């Protein structure tokens, strides 16, 4: 997170490195989304089977897992979108002294997500 802060403050900012990390983060988000989607679909089918067998309590636990996986899928989609935006508009950070509002939102959201998602090393750099 320190390197992101340095980039925001204009210290040692390298456009090529930001674009490369954004590209890596986009591909990592796609992989994580696929993994989460598979988990979600398995949990959803488990819910159906448990309800057919009459195990409502266990089905409720699985429904909670489905909800958590869907929330993570939504978060990963947002991270992927923010990385696309950062990759496309990173050159504005070198040209302008003021950061556009949409980039501020994207960067601050990525910084927040970096502290919350442990299996996303590209956000830590």
UniProtKB/TrEMBL annotation:
Leader sequence residues: none
Pfam families: Ist1
UniProt xrefs under InterPro entries: Ist1 (IPR005061), IST1-like (IPR042277)
The organism's place on the tree of life at top rank: Eukaryota
Annotated GO biological process: protein transport
Coiled coil: none
Gene3D superfamilies in UniProt: Vacuolar protein sorting-associated protein Ist1 (1.20.1260.60)
Similarity comment: Belongs to the IST1 family.
Name of this protein: Uncharacterized protein
């Amino acid at each position: 997170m320190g390197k992101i802060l340095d980039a925001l403050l204009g210290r040692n900012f390298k456009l090529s490195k930001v674009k490369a990390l954004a590209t890596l983060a986009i591909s990592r988000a796609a992989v994580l989304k696929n993994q989460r989607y598979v988990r979600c679909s398995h949990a959803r089918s488990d819910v159906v089977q448990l309800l057919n067998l009459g195990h409502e309590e266990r089905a409720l636990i699985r429904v909670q897992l489905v909800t958590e996986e869907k929330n993570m899928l939504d978060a990963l989609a947002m991270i992927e979108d923010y990385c696309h935006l950062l990759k496309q508009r990173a050159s504005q950070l070198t040209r302008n002294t003021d950061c556009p509002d949409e980039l501020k939102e994207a960067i601050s959201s990525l910084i927040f997500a970096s502290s919350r998602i442990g299996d996303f090393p590209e956000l830590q750099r």
